[in-house]
């Protein structure tokens, strides 16, 4: 009997539904070919639903989503909703409640993609950031006092637990071992200033490193990392870091791999339900125009299949995307692809079918 996976789909806002539709087209093509089945169940979470009902996420959303094998997400963010409501109420809430403690973000320059760094090519830019995804400054600890007065106080605390830090670091070592490329894991921190949080990170990192004698364990400050992403991106193999630094350096990572049109990632709970998404936002100005680049969402679908254990099909998606970047697409930017959204999706389908 062929294997079946139940996928919860959250197309979300703006161009989310358009890129998710292309991702599903590609998923159907590879799964047909490989002989497994994907069942999709749609959830209408996002800005439209919130504006209509006043509800960001229904009460039972987490319980419902927990029944699936994976979640495929388009984009969250709506121009008529105050920033923060949907991001915190949907995206961050799901990451936290589903305990997706890893945010895995590959940074890979595909052939044919314009790189903003002079003289760097696909052989130089191929690393993965393992971002802690449930703690740090994102935990929401803090508060305000005397708000709106001259005496106002605002506190935002970074929460780092031994358990949370250790499980993230362990995942990163295992991932680096399995990837088997540069066999180097770099801890990205700020031990010279954040002397409490990164002391815990650094001690844990070197303790766990003893269990991985084949992996080179290195440390770099986050500010230096941003410099080296631009100057020497070829130095990196796998990087592990906290939630906030991971958020920031992966946007820089996305730019050196060709921008938001291609950057994808997974919010992983290795013991539970994981959620896969293009890193870019909902791009409302391109909504409904068939102009948005679907490749990031298609890559997210590929990462999802690899995570589900369909590694060959996941790789096939990536290979097909690489053919599109090498042969067909003029630019990765929305409206400048020389292709429509659906044409780009069709090409990926064509290449996976041929391969
Ligand atoms: C990301 C995004 C989110 C984050 C926002 C939308 C809350 O920037 O996935 O990187 O900060 O994690
Ligand atoms: Mn971000």
Task: Explain what the structure shows.
The protein is α/β, with parallel strands linked by helices and 355 residues long. The protein is 41% helix and 22% strand. The strands form 2 sheets. The chain has a 10-stranded mixed beta sheet with strand order 2-1-3-12-11-4-5-10-8-9, sandwiched between helices. The protein has a two-stranded antiparallel sheet with strand order 6-7. Helix 1 packs across helix 9 (295-308) and helix 9 (295-308) packs antiparallel against helix 10. The longest helix has 19 residues, at 16-34. The chain starts with a strand and ends with a helix. 46% of the residues are buried. Bound molecules: 3-isopropylmalic acid (IPM) and manganese (II) ion. Manganese (II) ion binds at residues 247, 251.
Q: Helix share of residues?
A: 40-55%
Q: State the order of secondary-structure elements, H for helix, E for strand.
A: EHEHHEHEEEEHEHEHEHEEHHH
Calculate the terminal CA-CA distance, rounded to whole Å. 24 Å
User: How many H/I helices?
Assistant: 11
Query: Which ligands appear in the coordinates?
Result: 3-isopropylmalic acid, manganese (II) ion
Category by helix and strand content: alpha/beta
Overall pLDDT: 97
User: How many β-strands, per DSSP?
Assistant: 12
CA-based shape: globular
Uncertain stretches of 5 or more adjacent residues: none
Radius of gyration based on Cα positions = 20 Å
Task: Report the oligomer.
Answer: single chain
What portion of the residues fall into strands of 2 or more residues? 15-25%
Give, in spatial order, the strands making up the sheet with the most strands.
Answer: 2-1-3-12-11-4-5-10-8-9
Q: How would you characterize the largest beta sheet? A: 10 strands, mixed
């Amino acid at each position: 009997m062929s294997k079946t996976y139940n996928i919860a789909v959250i197309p979300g806002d703006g161009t989310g539904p358009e890129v998710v539709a292309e991702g599903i087209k590609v998923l159907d093509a590879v799964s047909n070919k490989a002989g497994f089945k994907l069942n999709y169940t749609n959830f209408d979470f996002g800005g439209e639903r919130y504006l209509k009902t006043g509800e960001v996420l229904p009460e039972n959303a987490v319980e419902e989503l927990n029944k699936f094998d994976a979640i495929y997400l388009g984009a969250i963010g709506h121009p008529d909703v105050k920033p923060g409501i949907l991001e915190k109420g949907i995206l961050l809430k799901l990451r936290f409640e589903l305990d997706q403690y890893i945010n895995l973000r590959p940074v890979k320059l595909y052939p044919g993609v314009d790189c903003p760094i002079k003289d760097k090519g696909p052989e130089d830019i191929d690393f993965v950031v393992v971002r802690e995804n449930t703690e740090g400054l994102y935990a929401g600890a803090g508060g305000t006092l005397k708000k709106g007065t001259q005496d106002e106080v605002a506190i935002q605390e970074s929460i780092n637990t031994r358990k949370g830090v250790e499980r993230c670091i362990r995942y990163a070592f295992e991932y680096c071992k399995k990837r088997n490329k540069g066999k180097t894991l770099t801890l990205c921190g700020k031990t010279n200033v954040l002397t409490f949080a990164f002391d815990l990170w650094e001690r844990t990192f070197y303790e766990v490193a003893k269990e991985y004698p084949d992996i080179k364990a290195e440390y770099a400050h986050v500010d230096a990392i941003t410099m080296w992403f631009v100057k020497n991106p070829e130095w990196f193999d796998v990087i592990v870091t906290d939630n906030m630094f991971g958020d920031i350096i992966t946007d820089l990572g996305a730019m050196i791999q060709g921008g938001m049109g291609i950057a994808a990632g997974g919010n992983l709970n290795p013991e539970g339900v994981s959620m896969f998404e293009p890193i870019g936002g909902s791009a409302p100005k391109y909504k409904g125009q068939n102009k948005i680049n679907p490749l990031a969402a298609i890559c997210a679908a590929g990462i999802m299949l690899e995570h589900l254990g369909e590694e060959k099909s996941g790789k096939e998606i990536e290979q097909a995307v690489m053919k599109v970047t090498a042969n067909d697409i003029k630019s990765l930017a929305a409206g400048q692809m020389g292709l429509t959204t659906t044409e780009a999706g069709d090409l990926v389908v064509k290449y996976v079918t041929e391969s």
